[in-house]
Amino acid sequence: MEQYYGTGRRKASVARVFLRPGQGRIVVNGKDFQVYFQGIFKGVQALEPLKETGTAGRYDALITVKGGGPTGQADAIKLGVARALVKVDPAFRAPLKKA
Fold it and tell me: φ and ψ at 66, to 5 degrees?
């Protein structure tokens, strides 16, 4: 099975993101994404790289994140997802950099 990896760091948070082809399930530290970032707008922004590249729903993401608070963790996840997507297709780099 193919898998793409990206690490994101922000403030005291470190996120390890594994992207695998799938239906768009996102799991953070063993919990569903919506449960983990319940009511935090920053959590929604963490998935912007998937929307920007049009790959939302095409990859499952298994994410482990440590350290910091919810905002730093969301930003670390955002960077990790973006780095993993660049490994999926290097052509994604330009639109992700612009966004």
Answer: -135, 155
Structure tokens that stand for 45 in this block: 């922004």
Q: Look at the alpha carbons of 64, 28, 24, 53 in this order and tell me if their dihedral is positive or negative.
A: negative
- Cβ(61)–Cβ(6) under 8 Å? no
The whole-model pTM stands at: 0.94
Please enumerate in sequence order all residues whose Cβ is within 8 A of that of 20, keeping only pairs 6 or more positions apart, or say none: 1, 2, 3, 4, 59, 60, 61, 62
Mean predicted lDDT score pLDDT of the chain: 94
Strand 4-10 relative to strand 13-21, pairing? antiparallel
- The residue length of the chain stands at 99
